[in-house]
Write a structure and sequence with these properties.
The protein is α+β, with helices and mostly antiparallel strands. It has eleven helices and 24 strands. The chain folds into four domains: 143 residues, ibrinogen binding protein from staphylococcus aureus fold; 88 residues, no CATH class; 159 residues; 107 residues, no CATH class. Helix 6 runs antiparallel to helix 8 and helix 7 packs antiparallel against helix 8.
Length: 547
């Protein structure tokens, strides 16, 4: 993680230049996230053990719920207090916010809010001017530290060296390189340590101290330039850093410290929200698929019961034809079937005459016939539902953003397996299909079933349409400037259709393609379902746009 003591120094400098006046309010966004609101500027404090940080950041819409006891305490003591200063403890990940406020007796009192962004030990502690703890976000009593109301506050013990005063040659590298810089030098993260080793040409754990010393000097020089970077992997935010990270293959975007953090945090939060929604929808859809598969199993059992239907019809026909020849008091009779030129054994019932029994057999036949028609119709409907939900499941797994997953949620509401939600803000924009230019063609890839329908509906008759053969996946449309797609474009589009399907991890996948004019949507069919003709099939290796 790039938010180390060196990065915090940049953020502290940024807060100093942008925050003044009074602390207007304190809000709690989640159990581990707070906003300190100073007029038009806000400082976000995250104590999330997986990614703690502080940054200038706009206040979110806070959920309407009762604030925690610690938030209420902060409001009592420092809400509307005058902001005096913010400092950093050396190059540690500890920030000190000082506030001044009159107490209930009218006396001016100075409070210090310590913010410690140290992984699982992250905390926020309010301390009075006598050094006594008022309270802490997380109360702790251990042999090393006591963070409890009324206790004397003891700062976090730190014996690391200042990065601008350390002599690299004095560090002990005899037991390996890993974490030597992190353990001994304040403000250094594993990300920075790995970069320095990379620049020093470290290989197989061996290092030439001359090269390491030069790499360290180069690092300090670059840090003094004062830049911060958002690190991206395939265009997606991955981390932040105070120098360029060259060992990872990341791209760099030079940004203000808090802006870089904001981009990273929003991406992480949206990714977490996306994964939570994805997991929830997958669970719901798989549960529904399980129910439908159980129904299919029961329907097949019912269908098996109708297998004697034609036998009953045959018995009725034979008894009607030979009733006058059949003696009384028999339990069965052998009758000649003129249609199939063979003898048929017909069960009899002494309670009924052959003609009465003929009608009974015809009634059984008609009843089973109606049952078979009903079961087959229901089977067709459920198999259509299963095919549709398997397609939905594929789109859930391939969803790339919150808007994609929310459109799938709405689709499932329409289908009836999700309760319709009351949304505060009606979305005015729909998510857009994936787009890519290849040679002289524009290729569009659907993200959900309704978008698939729209792609086909809005395509020109001579555009090419692609879909994996009998596997859930996206519809792909190819639009060409010339009206024709060459073999390379067809193969590339087919590989994308395979890549955005259930067969994406297979070696070779069959993909059907044809002109849009040969693709039709049956009336009343589920979203995304089409029938097509005059198609060709090509076997391709799956490909995705981020490959």
């Amino acid at each position: 993680m790039g938010f180390d003591g060196l990065y915090m120094r940049r953020v502290i400098e940024e807060i100093k230049g942008n925050v003044e006046g009074h602390l207007r309010n304190i809000y709690q966004y989640t159990k581990v996230d707070y906003f300190l609101v100073f007029g038009e500027r806000s400082v976000r404090v995250s104590l999330n053990p997986n990614f703690p940080f502080i940054a200038l950041m706009e206040k979110y819409n806070i959920p309407a719920k009762m604030p925690s006891a610690f938030t209420m305490l902060l409001r009592k003591y420092i809400k509307n207090a005058k902001f005096l200063s913010v400092e950093q403890e050396g190059f540690s990940r500890i920030a000190k916010f000082k506030f001044e406020k009159r107490n209930e007796f009218g006396d001016l009192v100075v409070y210090t809010l310590y913010v410690e962004t140290m992984g699982k030990f992250s905390n926020m502690i309010l301390v009075d001017q006598n050094g006594k703890i008022v309270d802490a976000h997380r109360r702790i009593i251990t042999v090393h530290r006591k963070l409890f109301p009324g206790k004397q506050f003891v700062p976090y013990n730190n014996s690391k060296k200042d990065p601008f005063e350390v002599d690299i040659k004095e560090l002990d590298f005899n037991r390996g390189l890993r974490m030597v810089l992190v353990r001994n030098i304040e403000g250094i993260s594993p990300l920075i340590e790995n970069e320095i080793y990379y620049r020093a040409g470290v290989s197989n754990g061996n290092v030439d101290l001359r090269f390491l010393e030069q790499a360290w000097e180069d690092f300090l020089k670059e840090y003094k330039e004062g830049f911060t970077y958002l690190l991206k992997d395939h265009g997606k935010p991955k981390d932040v850093a105070v120098i360029k990270i060259t060992h990872s293959g990341y791209t760099h975007e030079k940004m203000a410290p808090s802006e870089a953090l904001k981009s990273l945090v929003l991406f992480k939060e949206n990714s977490e929200k996306l994964e939570a929604k994805r997991e929830n929808l997958e669970k719901i859809v798989k549960k529904e698929l399980g129910k439908l598969e159980n129904i299919v199993e029961k329907l097949f059992k019912e269908l098996k019961e109708t297998e004697k239907m034609e036998d009953y019809k045959k018995f009725g026909e034979l008894l009607k034809a030979y009733f006058y020849q059949i003696p009384d008091n028999l339990t069965k009779v052998e009758l000649y079937d003129w249609q199939e030129d063979k003898m048929v054994s017909v069960p009899l019932d002494r309670r009924y005459s052959p003609l009465e029994l003929s009608r009974i057999y015809f009634d059984k036949y008609k009843k089973l016939k109606r049952k078979k028609e009903r079961v087959e119709k229901r089977l067709k409907e459920i198999e259509g539902d299963i095919s549709y939900l398997e397609n939905v499941l594929q789109f859930i797994q391939d969803a790339e953003g919150i808007e994609d997953i929310e459109e799938i949620e709405k689709e499932l509401e329409d289908f009836g397996i999700l309760k319709r939600q009351k949304r505060r803000v009606k979305r005015t924009e729909e998510s857009k299909p994936r787009k890519v230019r290849y040679k002289n063609a524009l290729i569009l890839i659907g993200k959900n079933n309704k978008q698939n329908d729209k792609l086909v509906r809005e395509a020109s008759p001579n555009d090419l349409w692609f879909h994996v053969h009998e596997i859930p996946g996206a519809h792909v449309i190819v639009k060409t400037d010339s009206g024709e797609a060459d073999d390379e474009t067809i193969k590339y589009a087919a590989s994308l259709a395979a890549g955005y399907s259930r067969g994406k991890n297979s070696g070779k996948v069959p993909v059907d393609y044809t002109h849009v004019k040969y693709v039709k949507k049956p009336k009343g069919a589920h979203p995304g379902f089409v029938i097509y003709k005059n198609y060709k099939t090509i076997f391709v290796k799956p490909k995705r746009l981020d490959d």
